[in-house]
Structure formats: C-alpha cells, structure tokens
C-alpha cells in the first residue's frame, strides 16, 4: 500500500481507501457479515482511511465501521459527514446546536471520542457563501470533538469557495474519466492552499467497469434506479451526471484503457491516482472481492502522456456536453 499526505494535516492515508455508502444502503441488497469481512480484509491489506456519512443507512455504515475498527482509532482514520439528516437549505441545519447534535450522534455510532475528518455533506452553495457553518466547525474543533474538517462538494465553484476558509483541510469531489473538470483549476488551487483531494464516484457508479448493457435493471432500492435523473438528490451523484444508456455507450468507447492493466475498473482508478493533486480515491464495495479488485489499481501501469492527452480529448469532445448536475 502507498500512502499520501492529506493536505497539510498530519494524517497520511492509503491512496486507495474506501467509501461506505454501498454497505450502508441505497445500492441494492446488503449483507452485514460480508460487509464486515470486506472491511477487515481492507484493513489487513493496509487501508487506513474510510469515508462514511450519518445518512448512509441512517447511520448503519458508521455502526459497521465501529465494529470493524474497534481498538484501532489510533491507526484507522474515519471521515464522516453531516447536514443531510435535516433540510439542507435551512440555515438552522448548520447552527451550533444542530451540528453538535449531528456530531455527537456520529461519535456514538462510531464509538469514538473524536472524528478524524468531519465533512459538510454537499450543502447548497448559498450555505457556503454565507459561511457561518465554518465558525461552528471551528468551535467543535476547539472543543476536541473533531480533529479536522472539510467539505464534500458537487461543483468546482463550491470547491473554490471552500478554499477561502483556511481551516478547510479537504475537498471531496466527483472526479473520474467522465468528470475531468476539477483538473482545470480546482486541483491546482487546492494544492496551493494545502487542501487534500478525496475522490468519490471514481467508477461513475459502475459505468467505468464496462459491465453493464443498456437494458440492465437495477434493484428498486438502488439509487442508480431511482435517481438517474436527479429525482432524489443531485443528478451528478448517479452515473457522474450522465444518463445510464449514454454512459454505457461512452464506457464502451474506453475499453482500450484496460490493455495491459487487467480491466477497465483498475485502469480507471489508476488514471485518477496518476493525478498528483489527488490524496486518495474512495471506491465503494459490498464484498471482499470488490475490495481486492479495487486494490489491484495500485499495481497496474500508469498512463503515458499520450494516453492522458487522448483521454482529455475524449472527455472534451464526447462526454462534457452530456454531463448534468451543475458541476
């Protein structure tokens, strides 16, 4: 395992880490025993950072992480998120009292006395512009309830706004072969500010595994079925903002990236890790096999300058115009 510094913090995290939305809920059926086996396997392989949120299974993924990391708080870092249990547009959701309640509830489920990285969970841009939530987080940090804080954002504009606050230590962004815009400005500014970049949706909700046909049917409780067009939350969180059939079509045009790299998923993760500003990538998983598959990305060859140019051209000419989600 390779490790990278999270911005200018004292935390070094595994470059392939994991997100726990899929084992919490909204990705179809789950098996907690299998989830715990997968978490334990990841830890055994050197993964030391996991991302979660209080709304993933209404706190269920936090509880699973508590079981898997019991007695490991000094060597396994956990990032969790808040605000989406309330009305994300209501300023009261970001008040000192409300955020403290969210924080203490997460601490209880995680069975920890301090959160390593506490993130605002994709708030509206108006909340970021108003900015008082950052003062609330400063207070929680002073109280010792959180070690560092960051923001999970939907757009580059939101990310740039967050960089105006000096205590923001990380940005969590959607970034993959279908969502390359953060490379244009945000990454360089984050590096200049000493802010880490955590990449979510690296496989565009599975599109970049190239395993789907256009007539694939997802389970009823899978957000890839009920949020394809942003019916429940930002459309960018599902298939990176592409319609499913268009995404399947575009993924088929990228099959060449798997040559010499095992498969498309490993290649897609490798491309992200090749970007020097990226701290870590956090693919999801449901079982040990998926954890192992994602970890294989560490070993496959990097992309050449010519391959990088070709992928940039593909994005600008074939993909960019189809992306939704205000990114």
From TrEMBL:
CDD domains (UniProt xref): AKR_AKR11C1
Recorded superkingdom: Bacteria
One MF annotation (Gene Ontology) recorded for this entry: oxidoreductase activity
Domain NADP-dependent oxidoreductase: 16-314
Pfam family, one: Aldo_ket_red
PANTHER family: D-THREO-ALDOSE 1-DEHYDROGENASE, NADP-DEPENDENT OXIDOREDUCTASE DOMAIN-CONTAINING PROTEIN
Name of the protein in its database record: Aldo/keto reductase
Organism, as annotated: Jeotgalibacillus proteolyticus
């Amino acid at each position: 395992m390779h490790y990278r510094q999270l911005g200018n913090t004292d935390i070094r995290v595994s470059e392939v880490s994991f997100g726990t939305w899929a084992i919490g809920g909204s990705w179809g059926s789950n098996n907690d025993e299998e989830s715990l086996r997968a978490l334990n396997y990841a830890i055994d392989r050197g993964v030391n950072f996991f991302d979660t949120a209080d709304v993933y299974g209404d706190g269920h993924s936090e509880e699973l992480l508590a079981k898997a990391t019991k007695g490991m708080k000094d060597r396994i870092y956990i990032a969790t998120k808040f605000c989406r249990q309330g009305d994300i547009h209501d300023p009261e959701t970001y008040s000192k009292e409300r955020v403290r309640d969210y924080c203490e509830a997460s601490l209880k489920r995680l069975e920890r006395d301090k959160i390593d990285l506490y993130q605002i969970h994709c708030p509206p841009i108006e909340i970021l512009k108003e900015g008082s939530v950052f003062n609330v987080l400063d207070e929680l940090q002073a109280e010792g309830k959180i070690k560092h804080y960051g923001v999970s954002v939907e757009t580059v504009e939101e990310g740039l706004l967050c960089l105006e606050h000096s205590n923001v230590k990380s940005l969590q962004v959607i970034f993959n072969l279908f969502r390359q815009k953060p490379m244009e400005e945000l990454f360089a500014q984050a590096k200049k500010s000493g802010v880490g970049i955590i990449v979510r949706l690296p496989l565009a909700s599975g599109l970049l595994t190239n395993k789907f046909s256009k007539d694939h049917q997802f389970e009823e409780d899978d957000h890839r079925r009920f949020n394809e067009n942003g019916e429940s939350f930002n459309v960018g969180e599902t298939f990176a903002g592409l319609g499913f059939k268009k995404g399947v079509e575009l993924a088929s045009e990228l099959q060449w990236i798997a040559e010499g790299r095992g498969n498309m998923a490993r290649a897609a993760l490798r491309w992200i890790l090749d970007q020097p500003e990226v701290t870590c990538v956090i693919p999801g998983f449901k079982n040990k096999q998926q954890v192992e598959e994602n970890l294989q990305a560490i070993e496959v060859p990097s992309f050449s300058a010519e391959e990088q140019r070709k992928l940039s051209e593909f994005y600008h000419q074939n993909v960019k115009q189809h992306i939704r989600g205000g990114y």
